[in-house]
Amino acid sequence: MTHAMAERNVALVDLLDRLLEGGVVLTGDLTLAIADVDLVRISLRALICSVEADHGDPADTGRRP
Amino acid sequence: MTAPRYVYAIGRAFDPAGLDGLIGIDGAEVHRIAHRDLVAVVSAAPSDEAALRARLERLDELAVVAEAHHAVVAAAATQTVVVPFRLATIYRDEHRVHELLRERYEEFEALLDRLAGTVEVGIKLYVADRSPAQATPSASGRAYLQQLSQRHRRRDEEWRHAAAAVERVDTALNAYALDRNHHRPQPAQLSGAAGDNVLNAAYLVPTERFTDFTELARRLARDDPALRVEVTGPWAPYSFAAPENGDRS
User: Fold this and answer.
1) Residues B81-104 pLDDT 10s
2) What's the domain count of chain A?
């Protein structure tokens, strides 16, 4: 059981549910606005990244002089 | 002593050898700060706050930080009962972490009592989106409209059925668990999962009932062909670490 808990190979999305919404919330001395890092924006970025990866612009490869 | 400290979790005192060689955020060595029977599991924090915040807004960097945080929490959870902290909780120095343990001693004790001997189980339910909303393009006029309305009706029925099935599974699991919290359903583009995520829940269960609980979840979901279940865990009790815990959904 405890070994299973130390298993590091977990899906990022499940981890973020817990790390961005769970856990004790205390205001540390450095006030990181963690609430601003919201999953909607992240998911939009993930979507944009995956779309870019799927339709990589071939013209980009010839960008260098 | 004056360097900022990143706090991963607070737990009951345990053998410091249990953290030997454990590495946290940015490769910093993990150590403990003790007060009475409590310990904070900490490491040196990244010193540039603005840079860290910027990193947390990039998915790839957020993943690195989240995985480092999780690795430390999970390792500590194999040693003792822990209250995981929210990602990126940072204190100015060790003294401030000491103060935290001293000032909130009773609160942490109560939380640790509640969480001792438990694990968190993640249960996600998906429904397949089976009926297409569009009518076949070859149909025309009145036939087309009829087809369209029939399909919409079937989809509505499927959704009502799925909602009832999800309610049934969630209720049965909740009756078996010590506590429950709902997370937001995961967008498919983020999880890459097939179907619509209609339940994304965490249940707190006694450690020895973990296997029984996951089997129950699978059995309940199997009763309904529209449902697909995904089980994750056992997790450290991330979703049950708030002092005033209740179902937030």
Assistant:
1) 999 998 888 888 899 999 999 999
2) 1
Q: How does pLDDT run across B41-97, given as a tens digit for each residue?
A: 999 988 787 788 778 877 788 889 999 999 999 999 999 999 999 888 888 889 999
How far A56 CA sits from the closest chain B CA (Å)? 18
User: To the nearest whole angstrom, how far is the Cα of B151 from the nearest Cα of chain A?
Assistant: 29
The answer to whether A41 contacts chain B (CB < 8 Å) is: yes
Residues 120-159 of chain B with CB under 8 A from chain A are: 120, 122
- Is this prediction's ipTM beyond 0.95? no
Residues of chain A with pLDDT under 70: 1-9, 25-65
Q: Is residue A23 part of a domain?
A: yes
Residue A8 is assigned to a structural domain of this protein = yes
Asked if A14 reaches chain B (Cβ–Cβ under 8 Å), the answer is yes
Domain region containing A39: 2-56
Residue B204 sits at the chain A interface (C-beta within 8 Å): no
Judge whether A64 lies within some domain.
no
- Do the domain assignments include residue A63? no
- Report CA-CA distances (Å) from B140 to B143, B150, B154: 6, 15, 20
